[in-house]
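Hello,

Our lab assistant flagged a job as stuck in the queue for most of the afternoon. It eventually completed. Since we weren't sure the result was trustworthy after the delay, we are filing this so someone can double-check. Below is the sequence as submitted and the structure that was eventually returned. Let us know if re-running is recommended.
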Amino acid sequence: MSDIQVLELGVGRFGLVNVPRAVYKYFDDADHAHNFFTRGVLRIGTLHDFRRIETHVDARGDAEEGHFEYGHESESPELITLENAPPPIRQLIQQTGIPIASNGGVLSARGEHSDCYLFCISASAHAAAVDYGSQCVRIDDVPNFFAALTRHMYAVCQLLTEPHGFAAPCIYRERKRVSSSIADFQELPMAFIKPPTRASDEEVRAVWHPDGHPIKPFVTECGELTPFLSRPAV
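-- returned structure --
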């Protein structure tokens, strides 16, 4: 059973799905960790920015962030319309303007999550330290931390007109799915899918949907976050 908490912020809302009450942020640089802990200085990234692996260390860059390969092999004749099509195939129908009469053929589509703001942390006090840095700051009160950060992004950064987003653990699986019936399709949150080889990171990520595009990463200072932080020994 999922543990879901919705934070009503007055100017928007933020959801927490199966997120531990305490999580961990890792840094390579001791000064960055200190500034986060003492002043609430942090970097908000974007989904598409993490595709640019040349700007990140290998552990953080992921050229396939937000992509998902979808294949459909009909076992019996079925009509695929805008109403029942999975999102990647729905895009094909929107382009042609006509439904797809599938009769045993194979359909392939590549889905892509639109760019969004990201803040990545870990549920583990140890798993991510090797690749993400030995400097650790613990977020002791996840609900109040993300409530304060979302309000900050709205009031100070002015990035969100109606702030909404949510945090959840990443899903470690291959970025491809093949189904034999439209009825069997289950939409997956593409922004949260990571390769199985990274499962030991136990990554939790927060996602905020912007008002428009393009967007880019930014660094901001939010002193309201500091009461919810501590420096554990790693």
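-- support follow-up --
The delay was a queue issue, not a problem with the job. The result is valid. Residues 58 and 131 are 9 Å apart (CA to CA). The chain has four helices and 17 strands.
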